[in-house]
Amino acid sequence: MKYVNYPFNETKRLTFYLATEEFLARNYPAEEYFFMWQVNPTVIFGRNQLIENEVNLKFVKENNIEFYRRKSGGGCVYADFSNIMFSFITPNFNKDFVFNTYLTKVAEILKNLGLNAYVSGRNDILIDGLKVSGNAFYQVNSRSIVHGTMLYNTDISVMVKAITPDNEKLISKGIDSVRKRVTNIKEHLDISIEEFKNFVKKNIAIESIILTESDITEIERIESTYLNNDFIYGKNPNYTVSKKKKTEAGVIEITLELKNNVVKKINMLGDYFLIGDQDEFLNNFRNIEFSRPAFLEVLKQINLNQYIYNLTNEDFLQILF
User: How, if at all, do strands 66-69 and 42-45 pair?
Assistant: First the structure.
């Protein structure tokens, strides 16, 4: 197996590393490749997942956490710089064989560090019964790609808040639940993250290669496909969001039909007093992004008091966000 090195030391977006996997599978000789990478706080969800069901968009945006879709299936995961991502590319096309071979190899490396590690289920590695690594699989150009997490010292509370729908009770229960089911390498070994990475590299690869500048250019071209909004949001069907809140103007319920986080339909119900044309008012919010900044910009252009009695811009925004 060959370990893949970059000709630089900077940290890239998560999508750059996903593009590297794809580049190697499409362009390099039919051999086995492996590399490790780390990213700034990022949420990555599976090929067929609905973002709003998996990601706490309010939390991730407020905390500058990036979010991307990957081309493999599986569930939503959170990564930060204290989590090591593993990528394995092989010419073998048998999913069960590839998964078993790779996961067993990684578990053996952990055992060599004195850990009670073993493979569980279809894609997890456990230490003493607690999950330390989850993995996903997909195929490109008659090659197989397995990529996954290796929790070294990730902040579990942030992880749960980022991948749990925006509900304080669910988040609170989720943190407690996840802490009982997952573990970090740091909890079992007195070893630095770089020492751990070097041990893995030494035990999994027999030689190394360095990508060229032309390789990097092609990887960046592939990466652009991951950054396209049609890809990030493209799996999302139209869906309905309903928000309800009591304000000085009355109890107001707003329903929105969204597509790719863009408002397609919007309606408002409640016991408020209507002054102007409600349809005229709501039409201002169609075909704009469903976000507080976008709605605030619209409100700056209109006089809300001409439409609904005693409803302030802030109350309107608080109903929705």
Answer: parallel
Phi, psi of 87 (to 5 degrees): -130, 130
**CB contact burial 189-203 (16+ within 10 A = b; e otherwise):** beeebeebbebbbee
Residue-range definition of the domain harbouring residue 46: 2-233
What is the pTM assigned to this prediction?
0.75
Based on the domain organization, do 103 and 250 belong to the same domain? no
Task: Give the CA-trace dihedral at 210, 211, 212, 214, to 10 degrees.
Answer: 180
Place of tokens 């309905």: 240
Same domain for 116 and 209? yes
Same domain (yes/no): 244, 229: no
The CATH number covering residue 256 comes to 3.30.390.50
Which of helix, strand or coil describes residue 66?
strand
Q: Please, are residues 290 and 261 in contact by the beta-carbon 8 Å criterion?
A: yes
**Digit-coded pLDDT (tens) for 215-274:** 999 999 999 999 998 888 765 666 688 888 989 888 888 989 988 889 999 988 877 877
